TrEMBL record:
<keyword id="KW-0560">Oxidoreductase</keyword>
<dbReference type="InterPro" id="IPR002226">
    <property type="entry name" value="Catalase_haem_BS"/>
</dbReference>
<feature type="domain" description="Catalase core">
    <location>
        <begin position="65"/>
        <end position="453"/>
    </location>
</feature>
<keyword id="KW-0408">Iron</keyword>
<dbReference type="InterPro" id="IPR041399">
    <property type="entry name" value="Catalase_large_C"/>
</dbReference>
<dbReference type="Pfam" id="PF00199">
    <property type="entry name" value="Catalase"/>
</dbReference>
<dbReference type="InterPro" id="IPR018028">
    <property type="entry name" value="Catalase"/>
</dbReference>
<feature type="active site">
    <location>
        <position position="112"/>
    </location>
</feature>
<dbReference type="GO" id="GO:0004096">
    <property type="term" value="F:catalase activity"/>
</dbReference>
<feature type="binding site">
    <location>
        <position position="395"/>
    </location>
    <ligand>
        <name>heme</name>
    </ligand>
</feature>
<dbReference type="InterPro" id="IPR029062">
    <property type="entry name" value="Class_I_gatase-like"/>
</dbReference>
<dbReference type="GO" id="GO:0005829">
    <property type="term" value="C:cytosol"/>
</dbReference>
<dbReference type="InterPro" id="IPR043156">
    <property type="entry name" value="Catalase_clade2_helical"/>
</dbReference>
<dbReference type="Pfam" id="PF18011">
    <property type="entry name" value="Catalase_C"/>
</dbReference>
<comment type="function">
    <text>Decomposes hydrogen peroxide into water and oxygen; serves to protect cells from the toxic effects of hydrogen peroxide.</text>
</comment>
<keyword id="KW-0479">Metal-binding</keyword>
<comment type="similarity">
    <text>Belongs to the catalase family. HPII subfamily.</text>
</comment>
Amino acid sequence: MSTDTPDAPVPGAPSSETPSYGEPTSPRSPLPPTPDQAAPAPVSATGASATAPDGVRAQQGEWLTTAGGTPLAQTDHSLRAGRRGPVLLQDHHLREKTMHFDHERIPERVVHARGAAAHGTFRSYGAADGLTSAAFLAEGVETPVFVRFSTVLGSRGSADTVRDTRGFATKFYTSEGVFDLVGNNIPVFFIQDAIKFADVIHAGKPHPDREIPQAQSAHDTFWDFVSLHTEAQHHAIWNMSDRGIPRSYRTMEGFGVHTFRLVADDGSTRLVKFHWKPRAGVHSLVWEEAQLLAGLDPDFHRRDLADAIESGAFPSWQLGVQVMPDTPDQTFEGIDLLDPTKLVPEELAPVHLLGEMTLERNPTNYFAETEQVAFHVGHLVRGIDVTDDPLMAGRMFSYLDTQLTRLGGPNFEQIPINRPRCPVNDLLRDGHHQDAVHTGVAPYHPNSLDGGNPFPTPAERAFVETPAPVAAGEKVRGPHTSVDDHFSQTRMFWLSLTPVERRHVVDAYAFELGKCYEQVVKERQLACLARVDEELCRAVAVRLGLGRPDGEVAADVAPSPSLSQLGLRWPVAGRVVGVVVDVTIPLAPVLALRAALQAQGVRTLVIGPRGGVLVGTDGTELMTQRSLDTTRSVELDAVVVGAAPPPRPDLVPVEGAGLDPRLDLLLEEAWRHGKAIVGWGAGAAVLEPYDAQPGVLVTDSASDVAGPLLERLEQHRVWERLHPTG
């Protein structure tokens, strides 16, 4: 196995540039009783003792056991061959724990139940030559894809805009079989070992007694887990940042999370991390927008994706990899590449771009495609292999096992959305939902009755596991030896953010912890934040009405500017602009403005005082897409005002009030959320209360609007209005 690494970028790749809010209705002990303490009998809402018929309280005994009652010393680490070795298939506890978790709910997904998807095409740049033998990454190759975006915690009926991690799963239908890149919009994960996956999801899901809160992490069990398992602090701060509330699926980065191994034609190998870079840039909602949208339009993200594709503003991402040498210890610049709670800063390993994916077709049927699509980390192709990451090892089992419950049996890959687009000769037979009509009499190998078919594929065309060395050592259930640093990269993320982004992180922690009942949970999480940054901890503690705990801050690390979302300019295609008009102005200039914006890929929504067709003073007819009754600024990226619609009488309590309160609300929210506001003509007078504010522009005519508006849209928001010193 070669351990060579490129000394230069891959040839041919394009360049990249609070007090508690109340008391729980039933007691929750902050920590389990010690052996010399009697556990209090749980009390139901009616005051009755919550015991089973045989008098045994469920999961309230003293010792941890398997489902069969075998006592367990611990449940945090998978069984592996040595501290650094691969996870062993004989780990019966991992198998039992994961199997139970995978089959907890039917038929919706246990996690990632709320999703939206689209069809598209991946076009390779040919920049992976010498890195991998994967055919779909050869120059000029086009590969059909199906991509599903999702939230993690909520049920299918939850809202799109909750603060949560988002799934970003891509199914490549390659000529050599299906390759699934199953990742998230955050490059790190909560845990280092898959055996704790059920635990972190149980902690994040609604409390089992009340089934609330839905689709959010602002509750005791989540922060209890995160503050006790400090490896989760890095992922948690990403979720508390603006990354936890993306503006759109179209403006999310995607990450493979794990370290993969690429294998070239000559057998040489590299370790890589996969990245999806959105052409539209990485943009987020502000917290108030996310809250409003959860009530106004719980389907905001799925609607946005479908509408953009239908209007021709096709979202696109570039696929890239960070390339690192395949060394025996599988580390890079002191970073453990087998630890999924760590990232590699792009300043140390730049992202080499391999191709571009464009989504251009919406699903025909949500259930048949978006709901039944089944991803699997083990869907690999020649030239792409896995590493000894213990989280990845558990996912290799879990994804496949889950489909047995969700999709009714082992033949889920015959469902049309999951079918490979290449010949399949698998020797697998029968079972639930078998659709293939197999021929021949010898479904085994070797055979002589079916002419020997199918024969083994020649090694140069087959998927062959990389003959990587396995770490020697005793069979042990324990952590990796280098994964005890849980705060340095958490601090790096904080230091990499701009002032406005840091303020949003403080706001998020204060909100989330302020919704917790248990004081011990808040205090323990504050102790964790004290190890991340003194300023962050103090700001959150003040908001919670608590003192700042003592704690040694992690050693200073260099910031990574690539982790901030701000400071760049981005394409405007797919942005949404609302244009307010009425019948008191000529409408031909509005048509011209709409054409100018649409020429740049900007979607426009004409907003009138009512729905239907408006006829302007010049006789021009214009159909409205929205009325002031049905529009809030949260669905827009900017607002243009060309008229001052007269107030609707039933909405104006004071005689003589000049501005329709619906328009007033629209503008006030847009201003508060940092969006560009432009006015001309009668609309300019409407903007007088916002005169001279950053991002509020007044022009002489509609023909002068497009230029300055497009320039502001490139920055996504008027950040200086949200944080004047930022």
